[in-house]
Amino acid sequence: MTRIVSWAVYGIVLLAGLYYALTGLGPADPVRLGGFVAGIAALFVLEAVEARMPVILLVARLALYVAVAALDESGLSRVLFVLVPFAAYLTFGRAVGLVLGAVCLVALAGGFAVWVPDWYRDVNYVSDVLMFGLGLVLALAMADVAVRERRAAERIADLTAVAERNRLARDIHDSLGHHLTAISIQLEKAAAFADRDSTVAGQALTDARRSVGRALADVRASVGTLRAEPVRLVDALTELAAEARATLAVDGEERHVDAATVTALYRAAQEAITNAHRHGKAGQVTVSVAFGAADTRLVVTDDGRGFDAAEPPAGYGLLGLRERAALLGGTVTVDSRPGAGTRVAVSVPTTGGVPS
């Protein structure tokens, strides 16, 4: 922003000085005019230099302002000095900008006092001082806005980073939690059938190894913030239900379900199934999904131990589930009673997107 504002002021000063000299509004001295143009050109070049040495650049700018103002016969180049507090405010902070602004205003009035006796009785000089003061106020206000925008952008970047970390944490928790629960169930099955049916035990170990592979793939995707191509929700839930020994029921046709909704509902089903097996010790889990015109609704029910819905169990599972739904404008309802199983319902409004 500093560069754009400075270049705009330099361009205006250059045009004003050339207009004054070439239209005969005052005496034209080719040498002074050439020096004036060269000084403005040097300011353009200086503004393009990266501010690795801000103090030196500010001093160099100020020296060129003085030179250009001395060479400009119109006296219009005094406006350049409003850029001194502007640049200082952005580079060194509010206090330095305000101090330099006051110094520039006092220097202008002091110069008039030395070179123009009784200047304060001349409306033109008084007007110059007032307009210069107004320019200083506007320049400092613009600098303040720029600083606030910069800080706001930094805060947004920080909040975005926090949101992304939370998203990754939810992904890792939901995915790993589900896979580890599935692996535990399959290993228990393998142990139970080891002496009775080697075929069933072997298949359970194969399923466990497959779950390990999926868990590793999910971890790599989450940590690397990689996204696979969106899949259809029914396909993803079908695979999930088969892996977790759950029953799937589908009502309606899957349309207008965007990738974000697919991810949110799939993770919600993972979390609910994991909780049903890990905490509820459920023997039967049912997953149903209904595709409506206004929303997509997922319901997971189990016949597990249940819990008091007024005091849900501690942990990040339900919190992450609610956060995912809230990001899409959806809702989560959890109904449970001790000994009566649990019902988790997630509803997400239809966005109109078409899944890939």
Structure commentary:
The protein is α+β, with helices and mostly antiparallel strands and 356 residues long. Among the domains are: 2-115, no CATH class; 232-356, Histidine kinase-like ATPase, C-terminal domain (Heat Shock Protein 90). It contains ten helices and five strands, in the order H-H-H-H-H-H-H-H-E-H-E-E-H-E-E. The chain has a five-stranded mixed sheet, with helices on one face. Helix 2 packs antiparallel against helix 3 (54-71) and helix 5 runs antiparallel to helix 6 (123-193).
Taking the alpha carbons of the first and last residues, their distance comes to 41 Å
- Structural category: alpha+beta
Mean pLDDT: 81
Q: Over the alpha carbons, how many angstroms does the gyration radius reach?
A: 35 Å
Q: Tell me the number of strands.
A: 5
Molecular shape: rod-shaped
Helix content: 55-70%
Q: What is the CATH C level class of the domain at 232-356, in words?
A: Alpha Beta
CATH architecture of the domain at 232-356: 2-Layer Sandwich
Helical region count? Answer: 10
Sheet with most strands: 5 strands, mixed
Q: What series of H and E elements makes up the topology?
A: HHHHHHHHEHEEHEE
Classify the beta-strand content into a percent band. 5-15%
What do we call the CATH topology of the domain at 232-356? Answer: Heat Shock Protein 90
Give a summary of the structure in a few sentences:
By secondary structure, the chain is an alpha+beta fold. Helix content is 64%, strand content 10%.
